[in-house]
Amino acid sequence: MPAFIWIVIGVIVLAALFGRQKDGGTPPAAGKSAAVRVDHPHYIDADEYECSACGARFSRRSMVCPRCGARFGGTREDSTAFEEEMLEIEDWEEEEEG
Hints:
Elements: H1 2-22, E1 35-40, E2 48-51, E3 57-58, E4 72-77, H2 80-97
Parallel strand pairs: 1-4
Antiparallel strand pairs: 1-2, 2-3
């Protein structure tokens, strides 16, 4: 009977250890918030996405960073490039009219 108990305890410990390794991505460090996918919309070019953890830029919308494997806890939009492109187009149109 005692051998059976030790076997059950061993199986539970192994399941707990392998269960933790199965979780993908990088866990957020203590005191840090989860990674965020930063969306960079463009007016003419294809939209870009950026990982807030490692700074990687990629073209496919994903909830996991293709470089560091961080899971994105949310998204944030950075439309500065979009606004700059719109201003350039307005300036270009004003030059054509004048």
